[in-house]
Amino acid sequence: MARTKKPDIASTAPILAYKGFNEDLACTPQGKFFQFESGKTYRHDGKVKACESGFHAITGHPLALFKYYAPAGTRICRVEISGQMDSDDGGEKTAAEILTVGKEIGLTQLILDAAKWVIDRAKPVDGNYTAAASERVGTDDTGGAATASGTGGAATASGYQGAATSSGERGAATASGDWGAATASGYQGAATASGERGAATASGDWGAATSSGERGAATASGARGAATASGEQGAATASGEQGAATASGWWGAATASGWQGAATASGARGAATASGARGAATASGWWGAATASGTRGAATASGEQGAATASGFEGKVRGKDGCALFLVERSTSGEILHAWAGIAGRDCIKPDKFYRLVDGKPVEVE
């Protein structure tokens, strides 16, 4: 079905939406720098037109935010927009006269909101089918399976050992029971598994997977996919370009193998690995380990007694006072020329500053 341009809207009631920012809570609309602050309201003077002028926010599928901001390094806030508004084709992104910056949320909450967004729109017909594509939507209390393969379908398995699969465009699969597995392989799909040992996989573009149960595994293999594992010993993997993997549980492992991917492990003894070019790995938990093996990768150890390693070409490391730092210097062909090990805060190595190995010596860099 062809999408039509939505007309300009004059609204006094605010509309809830999502907005992405850089690490400083700023953005550059039309190439102009604009600084925001949480809790403040901003008004645009002049014409309001989608993709051209006004304050922009995502009013459609929450994961559409990844079309404009990569998960890696992006801060996400709930916002309210009002006044004059204009939407792009399909109403996915809206420009507004007035914007209020609300609470900052993480990737996990955005994924949960995305799943709810899809499920709320997958209205059952005759109890078992979605209005969008006439595919089955089901739930089962014990061992049941729910499958939605049509466009816009939603699958939910909340019972013990339930499995939920959504392979259609914008489908959402949710398994909240023990050992449940949720898979969303369609475009913009969201998969959430909150039960113990649950596994969530999202392989579509901008797909998002979150697993909050103990030992849960979340995998996002699509471009700009986001994977979060918040349970103890959880594993989060983002293999798509500019994807983000976050493991916040004890002994959690986060891996980002795509170009410019970001891997973050915030739990105690967590491991963060970024193997793609220009990837960033951060371990903020106690005894955490951050490894960047790709070209010009960056590894950060910000937790107590952590370790950061950069083994790729022109890689760099930084660490909190007392953290171990490891660097490898390579030739353009990949040959190892030198290796170095040190401790942040000792022997003239400054804490919280990046270092790269040049001619066998650590040199401070940006």
Description:
The longest helix is centred in the N-terminal third of the chain and has 15 residues, at 107-121. By secondary structure, the protein is mainly beta. It contains one helix and 33 strands. The strands form six sheets. Strands 10-12-14-16-18-20-22-24-26-28-30-31 form a twelve-stranded mixed sheet, with no helix packed on it. A ten-stranded parallel sheet has the order 11-13-15-17-19-21-23-25-27-29, covered by helices on one side.
Largest sheet: 12 strands, mixed
CA-based shape: globular
User: Could you name the ranges where pLDDT drops below 50 across 5 or more consecutive residues?
Assistant: 1-8, 123-142
Number of strands: 33
Order of the strands making up the biggest sheet: 10-12-14-16-18-20-22-24-26-28-30-31
In helices, the fraction of residues equals under 10%
Strand residue percentage: 35-45%
Helix count, DSSP H or I runs of 4 or more residues = 1
User: Roughly how many Å apart are the termini?
Assistant: 49 Å
Q: Which radius of gyration do the C-alpha atoms yield?
A: 22 Å
Query: Please, what is the average pLDDT?
Result: 82
The class by helix and strand makeup works out as mainly beta
Draw up the topology in text.
Elements (H helix, E strand, L loop, with lengths): L8 E13 L4 E2 L6 E2 L5 E3 L11 E4 L16 E13 L5 E13 L1 H15 L2 E2 L3 E2 L14 E4 L5 E4 L5 E4 L5 E4 L5 E4 L5 E4 L5 E4 L5 E4 L5 E4 L5 E4 L5 E4 L5 E4 L5 E4 L5 E4 L5 E4 L5 E4 L5 E4 L5 E4 L5 E4 L5 E4 L4 E7 L5 E8 L10 E5 L2 E5 L1
Parallel strand pairs: 10-12, 11-13, 12-14, 13-15, 14-16, 15-17, 16-18, 17-19, 18-20, 19-21, 20-22, 21-23, 22-24, 23-25, 24-26, 25-27, 26-28, 27-29, 28-30
Antiparallel strand pairs: 1-6, 2-3, 4-7, 5-7, 6-7, 8-9, 30-31, 32-33
